[in-house]
Design brief:
The complex is a heterodimer of chains A (289) and B (497).
Chain A: E1 15-20, E2 23-26, H1 32-51, H2 70-94, H3 104-121, H4 123-126, H5 150-159, H6 184-197, H7 204-217, H8 219-222, H9 248-257, H10 272-284
Antiparallel strand pairs in A: 1-2
Chain B: H1 48-66, E1 83-86, E2 91-94, E3 97-99, H2 105-125, H3 128-133, H4 135-151, H5 154-162, H6 167-192, H7 198-206, H8 212-232, H9 234-240, H10 243-250, E4 257-260, H11 262-265, H12 288-291, H13 312-324, E5 331-334, H14 336-343, H15 355-376, E6 381-387, E7 394-395, E8 401-411, E9 417-424, E10 430-433, E11 443-447, E12 451-461, E13 470-479, E14 485-493
Antiparallel strand pairs in B: 1-2, 2-3, 4-5, 6-8, 7-8, 8-12, 9-11, 9-13, 10-12, 13-14
The chains are: A mainly alpha (289), B alpha+beta (497).
Chain lengths: 289, 497
């Protein structure tokens, strides 16, 4: 590069001296104002380092003169969003549960808020789509153990099922085999009878023996014909929906050892507006009564 | 004509034509790195192309400033501004066209048409866009006009520029920059009318009631108009705009570009009245073409990157040729092949139909027809059905299978419409709509004018009618008044059988 600048023969323009496979880079003239613009940008960047957070330090970073922080501005935005929802949230808190759906504005607010609260608090067990899984009820269907009105659902969410809360929904099915109430043969007979309720029995004699045991041991809760009792939280045994599976081995296990699923109470963890939103949301999923 | 006999600077050559002492400041030999910008003082010129440019300036500025004020009746539930970009409502209105955000592909089509139009024009006649219609050119022309009215023509402006600061110089500069800023503010002011109802916004702007964003945009456009049109001028075209580089690739040897006819002009030289024209060229080296050039180049050096083909040098040279009694067209729109043909003694001809122009032209026609056809057939009703994917399906206590769908109905009419929903392809489906009581086998929805209605629909099928884990189903949405239909295919999912 020293000495005379290299000039490209064809264009008559100076080159930078850089050459790749015979192709030279031309040093086309840039006007002075543009050069100054470039210097101004450099000066600007120095000012930017001083004013804005810029340099990483060992445990922290330079904070900048105006103290800008993305984290703080996100927190501020969240606060603003909460404040913006304040009016609707307090209206929901004041509105009777069964009246929320009557107000379209409140309903859409409740559904949106309920969906996000469900995703955060409930989806771990019930699934994001509330389809549940073995032992965790599907909330989309029309089969409700403890009732499917919005008030029933709200009650369940508030206090849980078999939880430590005093108001919790409580029941306790005996472990008929483990507690030596029934023998293994009797358990099989009862299961045969329960299968007969959904027309799946294979041994009519066993089912008949099971019916007698059912009338003694089970009918108080599960009712005649196995239709269940929501007051007691006794599931319907005559429908197509089984919380713990409806095949013979599943039923044998249920009768022998009982099932004692627990849902925690939410009244102490969520505010009353959120609890109402959750109830309205779950009620809207398709099975609400 | 101000270059009349008597005021010529150096009347050595010809008593009629002034020879201007001017250097093309952007001539290639004069380029150097980081050179200080040399001011250009374009001289006034009149002629065919100057008149054409005044006309185009008037038309383009009139369109820009007046278009937002055109009214267009769309009925009671829509704005009556012919051209409106309504960001809050997410609508774009252009006369009879109304575009929703998801139809932005119309804009893509428009941009394709604009690009192809530019390609076609450039391959036919060079940088026509740059020379006549580019906003940078139009506004710079307007700013130079103001400058000339306040400070005088080239010589007066040069004298004023060199003069020491006096009250007169100061006054003229203040008036010039003042008018420039007024034009710049008006430019920004007109811009914001495209985004709001113009008659409402105008009084708001003056009473400081308008939204802050209006003032921000007016301020930004005032700044850019003043900087680019008033101060930067040719620097924008030469150093900032990518378009000259691209256009170089669009020209071919048959493109009409502003050219100096070397075969006629050379050898150039001063010419005295009454001298013979034998054995010399028609160019009398008066430099008028250089003096009028707003880009600071000498067209006689050939086609250059700086040249925006504004054709003012053609006007300047033609009036000189008239005075010295030689034919016009020493500088003219010409093609590269014509200059070669003349060298070979063949007649010049213009070839407009070339593979390049035919391809550009036919693609424009095809894209234009597609755009037109889709715009004419643009539906006033659209339906989209989103099937729930979590859960895929729900088994009910009697064993029947239920699927959930979100039905979105786009009512593009400016009135409330009612729609019926029917299903095709399922055996004995039962429809339920969230928020509606028993709907039977046909659900009805009401959608507000010019908006989207979203509905949750549950479809239940008895267990023995679910033949497969996935069954095709068609949602048919029908406008109850005029029978317009929108069908949407989706599927109904069930357990594996």
């Amino acid at each position: 590069m020293a000495g005379q600048p290299d000039v490209d023969e064809f264009s008559g323009t100076e080159t930078t001296g850089h050459e790749w496979d015979g192709i030279k880079e031309l040093n086309n003239p840039l006007p002075r104002w543009w050069l100054y613009t470039f210097y101004i940008c450099i000066l600007w960047s120095i000012g930017y380092w001083i004013v804005m957070p810029a340099w990483p330090l060992i445990n922290s970073h330079t904070k900048g003169l105006i103290g800008h922080s993305d984290r703080a501005s996100v927190a501020r935005s969240i606060e603003e969003a909460k404040a913006a929802q304040g009016a609707l949230a307090s209206r929901i808190a004041e509105t009777e549960l069964d009246q929320v759906s009557a107000d379209p504005e409140l309903l859409s607010f409740a559904l949106a808020g309920g969906r996000s609260a469900f995703a955060v608090n409930c989806s771990q067990c019930h699934g994001l789509g509330a389809a549940g899984s073995r032992g965790y009820p599907n909330l989309n269907d029309d089969d409700w153990i403890w009732g499917g009105t919005v008030a029933d659902i709200h009650q369940t969410i508030l206090y849980g099922i078999r939880s430590e809360h005093d108001e919790s929904r409580q029941n306790d099915m005996p472990a008929f085999l483990n507690d030596e109430i029934l023998t293994r043969e009797q358990v099989d007979d009862v299961v045969e009878y329960v299968l007969s309720l959904t027309a799946r029995a294979e041994d009519d004699a066993a089912a008949a023996r099971g019916a007698e045991i059912y009338a003694e041991q089970c009918v108080a809760c599960h009712q005649e014909g196995g239709v269940g009792d929501r007051e007691l939280g006794a599931p319907n045994l005559a429908d197509q929906i089984w919380l713990y599976g409806g095949e013979r081995p599943d039923l044998v296990e249920t009768v022998s050892a009982s099932r004692r699923g627990v849902m925690p109470p939410w009244i102490d963890r969520l505010d009353s507006a959120t609890l109402k939103k959750l109830a309205v949301y779950v009620h809207s999923l398709g099975g609400g009564e | 004509m101000e270059h009349s006999p008597g005021i010529a600077d150096t009347a050595l050559s010809n008593p009629v034509v002034e020879t201007v002492d001017v250097q093309p400041v952007n001539k290639q030999e004069r380029r150097e790195l980081y050179k200080k910008r040399e001011k250009i003082f374009p001289k006034r010129v009149s002629g065919t192309f100057r008149s054409l440019k005044w006309g185009i300036m008037a038309v383009t500025l009139a369109i820009y400033y007046l278009a937002p004020w055109i009214r267009w009746d769309r009925g009671p539930n829509a704005p009556d501004q012919a051209i409106l970009i309504d960001f809050p409502a997410r609508r774009f209105y252009f006369f009879f066209i109304e575009i929703w955000p998801q139809e932005v592909y119309y804009l893509t089509g428009l941009l394709i048409l604009a690009a192809l139009g530019l390609f076609l024009v450039t391959s036919l006649a060079g940088r026509v866009w740059c020379g006549y219609t580019c906003p940078q050119t139009v506004w710079t022309d307007l700013f130079i006009l103001v400058e000339r009215m306040v400070e005088g023509d080239r010589n007066a402006r040069m004298r004023l520029d060199k003069a020491h600061w006096t009250v007169e110089k100061f006054a003229r500069r203040v008036v010039k920059h003042g008018i420039w800023i007024v034009i710049a503010v008006a430019t920004g002011g007109a811009w914001v009318f495209y985004f709001a109802d113009a008659p409402t916004l105008l009084p708001q702007l003056f009473t400081l009631q308008a939204p802050a964003v209006s003032y921000i945009f007016i301020g930004a456009l005032t700044l850019t108009t003043y900087l680019l049109g008033g101060l930067a001028r040719e620097q924008v075209c030469t150093y900032m705009c990518p378009w000259p580089r691209i256009q170089g690739a669009l020209l071919d040897e048959e493109s009409l570009v502003v050219s100096y006819r070397t075969d006629r002009g050379e050898p150039r030289g001063a010419h005295k009245k009454g001298q013979s024209w034998e054995g010399r060229g028609d160019c009398i080296d008066c430099n008028q073409c250089v003096a009028v050039c707003p880009m600071g180049i000498d067209i006689r050096d050939g086609l250059q990157l700086e040249c925006i083909t504004c054709a003012l040098c053609i006007d300047a040279c033609n009036s000189v040729m008239d005075k010295v009694g030689r034919p016009r067209g020493l500088i003219t729109y010409d093609t590269y092949t014509n200059s070669q043909r003349r060298e070979r003694g063949e007649p010049a001809r213009i070839k407009l139909l070339r593979p390049r122009t035919i391809v550009y032209g036919s693609v424009i026609v095809v894209v234009g027809l597609i755009m037109l056809a889709t715009l004419i057939q643009r539906p006033t009703l659209e339906a989209n059905v989103l099937r729930d994917r979590n859960p895929l399906f729900v088994t009910l206590s009697d064993g029947s299978i239920r699927n959930g769908y979100t039905v979105k109905i786009l009512n593009k009419r400016h009135e409330t419409r009612s729609y019926g929903l029917t299903l095709e392809g399922l055996n004995d489906p039962k429809i339920a709509v969230v928020g509606q009581q028993d709907v039977g086998d046909q659900a009805r929805f009401t959608v507000k004018p010019d908006s989207l209605g979203s509905f949750r629909v549950f479809v239940t099928v008895p267990t023995d009618a679910v033949a497969d884990s996935s069954m095709p189903v068609t949602f048919v949405v029908t406008d109850e008044d005029d029978g317009t239909m929108a069908a949407n295919d989706t599927s109904f999912r069930g357990p594996d059988r």
